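Please check both lines for our workbook:

___
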Amino acid sequence: MRVLGLDTATRATAVGLLDTEDGAVHERRDDPPAGERPRHTTRLLPLAAQALADAGIDWSGIGLIGVGTGPGTFTGIRIGIATARALASARSVPIAGVSTLQALALGAAGAATGAERLLAVLDARRSELFVAGWDPVEVGRAGAEPLLSPQALPPAALADVLAASGQRWLAVGDGVLAYTESVERAGARALEPGSPLHRVSGAEICRLALTARAGLADAVTPDYLREPDAKPARDRVQA
C-alpha cells in the first residue's frame, strides 16, 4: 500500500509518500524564506503531484491519506485538513489524522541518546510554544501515549514543566530555533540549528497514519490547543 502524508501546521508545506511494500519514501516540501508568508494554498497539491510522479504512480495508487492535525497555525491546519478530506472523499480513500508534534518527535527518535526523551517544540507565536514529549522507543507505535501532554505555554514556563517531568529531554522543532536560550535554560539538549530534524517530515506523517485509526474524512478534526489568533467579529463582541 502507498500512503500519502500532508502537513501544513507550520510555515512549511510538507508532503510524503511511503510504499509499505518496499519501504520507498518520496518527500517534497516548501520552506518559505524568513519573512515570507506560508504558501500552503499554492504549493500543497503541486508538491503532492510531484511526489506521486517521483514514485511513478497516479492518484489511483494511494491507499491511505495521513494529515497533520496540529497544533500550529489556524489557517495552515485548516488548509491541510480540508485538502486531505477532499482528496479522501473524492477517491474513497481512508484518512487518518495524526499529531504534528508527534510526527516531529518521531523524526528525531534516532537522535536521542541514553535516557533522553523526545521534546517536540513548535513556535506558537504570541510568545508561546507548543510542546509535547514522547519516549523514543514508543513514539511511532500504535496508541503511543505522550510522556508530556501537548500544551501551549510561555517559554519561561518550560523549565518548570520539564523539571516536574523528572526526565532528560532532547528538543527539536522550530520553537527550539526561536527560543534556544529558553529551551537550554530549561535543561533540554537542543539539536544543532542546521539539523533537518527541526522540520516536520511528510514521511513521518505517513508512518504515524499507518498506526492511527483511519476512517471517513469527516472524522479528522484539527487540534489547535488554544483559541485562534483571529476571532470572528461576533465572538469579539460577545467576549
